[in-house]
Structures are given as structure tokens and as C-alpha cells.
Amino acid sequence: MIEYAAEVMISEAVSMLDLPPLRGNPFDHRPIEPSRAQDLVGRDSLMIRLREHIISESPRNILLVGESGSGRTSMVNALSSQVRHKLVSQFWPENDSVNSILNEIYVHFAGYDVPRSTSQMCESLVEILDNETGPLPLIALDYPYSTPLNEFLTRITPLLQRLRALVIVTATPSQLKSLDEEASSAFDIEHLENLNKPDIQKLADNLVRRKARERWVINPQLLDAIMAVSYTHLRAH
């Protein structure tokens, strides 16, 4: 009886999915890379605001806040595909994080002739970016959710505020809560909201079309379940 019930449940689940024939698994946890920026969905208004800062040469420090899996890295990658001068830093250094990242930023925008002192490096970087014209460069610091952001931002923000650039730091809601007022007050905060049903369908279309000849129309019950799970996940955090 139990085996029969299990078979019925599995059959119902497969029927609800009703996936077309696939040439592989289209659903993975990888972020959208810059070369696939067109696959980003549900972030049009945010993308327009960020691009406007760049085009209008209006330097900003922005905290891009979203749960793990909400698309922070995908958003950063998509924006970077539309910017000529950019640095997307995604590897958190184990030692002396502030100086290591300052060096990374300096080398990227100013070259390998790095001044000996941190203060000279900062002053030189500010001057080099100030002398540029045209759309702002993008500096995106997109580190793992376990990164101790409070101490890091407290130390590096005084420099970030001086740079002629659009600076984006990604964070989870938990990381945002951990920030002192001094650290968070220097940033405009942008939250990545849950996708709505049309966005979820469009995202599925973008993913499935690479692995199937047919479009996958998500069963309404399954779509409701996805929305419910996502909403519960956000409420839990």
C-alpha cells in the first residue's frame, strides 16, 4: 500500500512538472554571466537606475541586498556587461582584506606601479579616477555571504566615498543587520525583491530554451508552490 501511494505521488509530481524533452538539466545554481545578461529578469527598474548613475556621472555607494540565490551576482554581472570600465571583485582575500582589495582596485585602474604606502595609493587612485571623463566606472565588491562586512566597510568606505565611480557592495539581509550605523549610512540600499509569477515563467523560458525545442509552461499549482516557498523563505529571514 505504501509503495503504491509513493508511486502515485511520484506520478502526480511528474505530471505536474510536464517538462518537454530535455538535452540536459537546464536548472543549476550558477549566476548569470555577463555574456548572458539578456537572461536577467525582473530587475529592469533597478538596472535603469544603476545605469542612470553611470551615464549621468553621478557617483554612488550602493548596498545591493538580497538573500542567497536572489540574483545579486547575476545583477552585478549583467550590469558589468554594459559598462566599459569596470572591476568586479569576487574573491575574498584571507589576509589583510582591506589592503589586498585596495591593491586590486588600484592595479585594475592605475597599473602595476603601486605606491609603497596605503595613503599614497589612495590619493593616486582618487586623482586618476577624477581625471577621467565620460560614464562612471563600475566597482563591484561581490563577496560570499560569510564575509565579515562590518569591519571591512568601516575601514574601506572613507576611500570608496571619494572615488569617481559607481560602487556596489553585495550583502545578505543578515550582513546588512550586522552593519554599524556608521558603515551603512554611507550607502544607498537597494533590495532585490522576490520575482512575480510572470518573471518566474520568463526565467524558466530563458533556461529551458537552451535544453529543449519546446517551451515549458509551468503548471499553475507548481507556480503557486514556488511563490509560497519563496515567500516563506523571505519571511524566515
What does it look like?
Strand 3, helix 6 and strand 4 form a beta-alpha-beta unit. The chain has a five-stranded parallel beta sheet, with helices on both faces. With 237 residues, the protein is of the alpha/beta class. It is built from ten helices and five strands. It has helices at residues 2-17, 44-55, 72-80, 97-110, 118-130, 149-160, 173-178, 181-184, 197-208, 220-236, and strands spanning 60-65, 86-89, 138-141, 166-171, 188-191. Helices cover 49% and strands 10% of the residues.
Give helix and strand order, one letter per element, not per position: HHEHEHHEHEHHEHH
Number of strands: 5
Oligomeric status of the shown chains?
A: single chain
Unreliable stretches (pLDDT < 50, length at least 5) are 1-14, 231-237
Give the biggest beta sheet. Answer: 5 strands, parallel
The averaged pLDDT comes out at 87
SS-based class = alpha/beta
Beta-strand content bin: 5-15%
Distance between the termini: 39 Å
Q: Count up the helices.
A: 10
Which of globular, elongated, flat, extended, rod-shaped describes the shape?
A: elongated
Which value, in Å, is the CA radius of gyration?
21 Å
Strand order of the largest sheet: 2-3-4-1-5
Helix content: 40-55%
